[in-house]
Design goal:
Helix content is about 80%, strand content about 0%. By secondary structure, the protein is mostly helical.
């Protein structure tokens, strides 16, 4: 079996277990979706409650509900939202676009910053700038994204008034959108870049002491050529893997950042789905996030295998 086939099978099995967890976890939450739907102050009869449960399919045994869920997924149907009265896929697509916009920018910018600064920090670790960079990166990477978002919101929006404190735009123009998304993107970029800098620094430190790097220096190659011509390629493999893993971590962190900045993305939608026990909406949102993370990991595997052929042989 080829490298790509083996990876696809592995991620397909992972997706299957994710689908099972995605179905079970919302139902493990305390609370009744029907009672959340009608409200605590509304008085209804038991017959009405039973009729509502039957209409939503919640009166069926858990096995029958799971089979219905799988059958719907096979037909591309993510279900119907209890609270928002719409098809889940139609509700998710516009919100997903906004979340992917600012998380995508943060992932790419964080990877580029981590690659560049981390390489120089690892190549010259004895310099004061490298040490300061490492300490700052460690401090930022240990700070939860939502706490960093609250600090930035308090300083730049409420105290200095430089940026808006909520919403995606005042009017649908590129300038207004960039102004509103600047702080959320900055928070996620700093968080991603700090982790990538630490990983890249350690990887360059290790590769810089390898025999091939010493041999290149002995041949008279300049330090810049050894770094960019030999070391950087091998040292970037852990970073590529980390970026793929970070995609899921940043996605989950973005959910809290969206709530802090009141952005109408996936985060606020998932928050509303959890509070309302809206099973179809929650299942659909988490499934799309899981598929996105799996696709990012598959892409990282293919890129790493392209850079280092030994991985293709080991992965067969």
């Amino acid at each position: 079996m080829g490298f790509i086939g083996a990876r696809c099978i592995r991620y397909a099995v992972s997706l299957f277990f994710i689908v099972i967890l995605n179905f079970l976890l919302p139902r493990a939450m305390p609370g009744d979706p029907v009672m959340n739907l009608i409200g605590e102050d509304t008085m209804v009869t038991e017959a009405t409650l039973a009729a509502l449960r039957a209409k939503l399919g919640l009166d069926l045994p858990i096995g029958a509900q799971f089979w219905s869920y799988i059958s719907s997924l096979c037909h591309g149907d993510l279900g119907y939202s209890y609270h928002l009265n719409g098809q889940v896929l139609d509700l998710l697509l516009p919100r997903m676009g906004w979340t992917l916009l600012f998380t995508g920018i943060a992932v790419v910018a964080g990877a580029a910053i981590g690659l560049g600064i981390g390489a120089f920090a690892g190549w010259r670790p004895e310099r004061t700038g490298s040490r300061v960079t490492s300490v700052l990166s460690l401090a930022i990477s240990c700070t939860p994204p939502y706490f960093l978002a609250l600090l930035f919101l308090s300083l730049f929006s409420f105290r200095l008034g430089l940026f808006p404190f909520k919403g995606l735009y005042d009017e649908p123009t590129i300038g207004s959108i960039a102004w509103h998304l600047f702080l959320p993107v900055l928070v996620l970029t700093l968080f991603a870049a700090s982790r990538n800098i630490l990983i890249m620094r350690g990887s360059v430190l290790q590769e810089g002491g390898s025999l091939y790097a010493l041999y290149a220096r002995a041949k008279g190659c300049s330090d810049r050529f050894v770094l960019f011509g030999h070391v950087l390629k091998n040292a970037s493999l852990p970073l590529i893997t980390q970026v793929a893993l970070d995609f899921g971590f940043i996605f989950s962190g973005a959910l809290f950042v969206e709530i802090v900045f009141s952005l109408n993305g996936m985060g606020t939608l998932i928050y509303d789905a959890v509070m309302g026990r809206d099973y179809p909406l929650l299942q659909g949102a988490l499934l799309i996030i899981a598929i996105t993370v799996i696709a990012a990991n598959l892409a990282a595997d293919l890129i790493c295998a392209r850079i280092d052929p030994r991985l293709r042989e080991a992965g067969r």
